Protein: BNR/Asp-box repeat-containing protein
Amino acid sequence: MRFLLSLVLALCVLTPPASAAAPPSGTWESVGPNTTGGYLAFTSAKPSRIYAQPPADHRLYRSDDRGHTWRQGGLYPGGYLRGTKLAADQRDPDLIYVAGYVGGGGQGAVLRSTDAGATFQAVLTMDGDVNDVLIANGQVYASGTKGVYRSSDGRKWKLIAGSPAEADSLRAAGSDLFVTAGHDLFVIRNGKSTKAPVVAGSQLTVHGDKVLTGGGSSSGVHLSADRGASWQEVKGPFSGWILFAALTVTGDLQVESLHGHWVSTDLGRTWRATQGLAKLDVYEDLGSFPDRPAEQVVYGSGGIYTTTDANTFQRIGLPAGVVYSLAISGESLIAGTMVGSFQTTLPARDQEWGFDGKAPAAIGNRVGALAVNPESPNVVLRGRNGYRGSNDTIFLERSEDSGKTWTLLTAVDGNTKSIAIHPALPRKRTYVAAYLVNAFYFSEEAGDSLVPRIHDELRGVKAIAIDQHGLDSVWIGDVSGLYHSDDTGITMTKVLDGTVDAIAIEGERVVVAVGQSVRVSTDGGKTFKSYPTPRLSALTFGRGGVLYAASKESPVLRSSDGGRTWSKLGGAPSTESVVASPDGTWVFAGTNDGSVQRLRVKGS
Structure:
């Protein structure tokens, strides 16, 4: 009932608003960038296929060409379930199971798809999270709060008597089922559950009769070569906290600690140091295409990668990230994400936008704002939200090659979602919006240094835009309302109440996103009229005065009358950013879980 109710409500929310003109026809396409990793599943029935579940996402991804292109799966039932581990059937490539949970805990479900992830059905629900799923010996298993469940057909389930509570990872060696529960490891053999004499790690892998557990603790790595009859601690050059430990499909051992990553081809007698930690940071999952056992597929920081030696890597996924900002610089499209900014050539045909051999930083690398210099389009500013110590910090950086390389200009307190470069003084004046502080920033040196404009009434500036009526005039969109200044922000006058999320200006038309509405002025901001919309996250004018809007509550919206009426363009149900190509051919949307998607709006 809960799933059905949530689904009905979701459909109600997506009811289209009234429209002044029919939206362009066409199909949204996923065009990258690859910014996100995910838990992995492969199937011998289709060796080139890979499934991946981004952490805490509401859908999985599938590639049928070894990661060259990816497709989003359908949303999980109700829209609020999130996925974690997954298991693919080895005979039917379209049959997939996902361990699902509700964010915040309290309820979980086993999700089943028979159409390669396009749609899912909840086949088992339980109190607490479902932590893992496994297909082995003609049975399907699921772990959760009460223990391990088993099904012979994937639809009817039964709790295995004596299985450990708070069950987590599941693996099978022959007919034996291995289960972790907290720091304990159990083997279920002939209907009886026995605790193993080792400390379980966060990883549990099996190769033939070999069973390995380790990772997520300082309790070492333990190996059994006889399906749990005996155990030995794996010794090596690693010590202290173990980040990751696994057996590959060829039987090699891989261990990662805080100090490095090592591979052993002889069950730990000798070890080879690799660049795994230095280049990918922490390994999260490891697998292989069934017909390429010597090539590892790694879920690491900021992506999914392939390697044959753990020294050189190629990124193959996933286009599943949040894109907070978008900009077009010359012939380049730039996307600001949680793990830095990415750049590709228009019109963005490939999902991989270029990999320099090292995973991007996963912490303190969120690019919240991008701005292109109107006089020199190859010059771009970005606001990267990170930390100095424990303080939230805006790192203002400049690129002079359309986003390929960046140079740090200055760092100031706060986070940013908006940067404005003055079109009449592009070599001098720059404004940087800031939240988490009661100020925004002003520069007379093109961003080389920033001066805070501090105002007690400000509670978080989310948008900033140049007023074209004066060299010193600027619009400031704050959580507390819309403000206007005629002296570069030294003083301000409040114009509108309400939380301002975005501002777009073209000529005398000023469009401001305020709550669940846009306020539209056709006289340069002297007067405003209000029109209903979903809550918007970004606004931009395209060719011919067409207005596009991103929204966390709706697909991309389009207005051909300056913001009075809107039509939905479809695509992702939740977006953060939007930009239109200068020739009016394409609209690019920065989504909340699918990286960048594009739609042809000219000639469609």
In short: The first strand starts at residue 29 and ends at 30. The mean pLDDT is 93.
